[in-house]
Structure formats: structure tokens, C-alpha cells
Design brief:
Glutaredoxin, four-stranded mixed sheet, alpha+beta
Length: about 120
């Protein structure tokens, strides 16, 4: 089984989720999404798999949320996705993809459902 994790090594939940996956001996592709953010197409696909709207996947307490205008309620879904791609710090983490499904590792054990 191939698993992809959008990971931030500075985040404790992301590190815990990665460790949980490593303990399962799965083939893991680690993407440090702050260095290599998902494309708009990839993020749209992730949102569909999570069954979420873009704003639900945003870290609204980050300074960039207001600084980049993402708090504007008039923004379209495409504009929100573009904002997340441009400022990947706004994307909730970690996100795990496996078996054509996605899960957010909050708590880390929630990703086990898609393995």
C-alpha cells in the first residue's frame, strides 16, 4: 500500500501521525508541504476526498489568514484554494492520502481508518 502524507516536521501532530504510519510498515511518500505545496488541482482533489470546503481545511488562527485576505467571506472556492496554495501555512496538517481516500491526522489515529 502506498501512503502520502502532507507533513510539517515542526508540528507535533504531524510527527505523531508519521510515526504511527511508520509503525504500520507502509510505503510512505513524505511531502513537506510548506516547501512543496500541493497544486490547486491536488488540493481540490484532497478536499473532495475529505468531503470538505476549502475554509474548513484552513488554519484560521494563522496570521496569514487575515493578512492574505482569506477571511473575506466573498471569496470563491477557487480563490480560497489559490490562497492556500500561495500560503501553504494555512493548510491544516497533517493530511494523509491512502486507498483513494484522505484523512486529517487530528488526532493521529484518525488516519488509520483509511489504511
Amino acid at each position: 500500500m502506498s501512503v502520502k502524507i502532507y507533513h510539517n516536521p515542526r508540528c507535533s501532530k504531524s510527527r505523531q501521525t508519521l510515526q504511527l504510519l511508520q509503525e504500520r510498515n507502509v510505503d510512505i511518500e513524505i511531502i513537506e508541504y510548506l516547501k512543496t505545496p500541493p497544486t490547486a488541482t491536488e488540493l481540490s482533489d484532497i478536499l473532495k476526498k475529505l468531503n470538505m470546503e476549502p475554509r474548513a481545511l484552513m488554519r484560521k488562527n494563522e496570521a496569514e489568514y487575515k493578512a492574505t485576505g482569506m477571511d473575506n467571506t466573498d471569496l470563491s472556492l477557487d480563490e480560497l484554494i489559490a490562497g492556500m496554495v500561495a500560503s501553504p501555512k494555512l493548510i491544516e496538517r497533517p493530511i494523509v492520502l491512502a486507498n483513494d481516500k484522505a484523512a486529517i491526522g487530528r488526532p493521529p489515529e484518525s488516519v488509520l481508518d483509511i489504511l
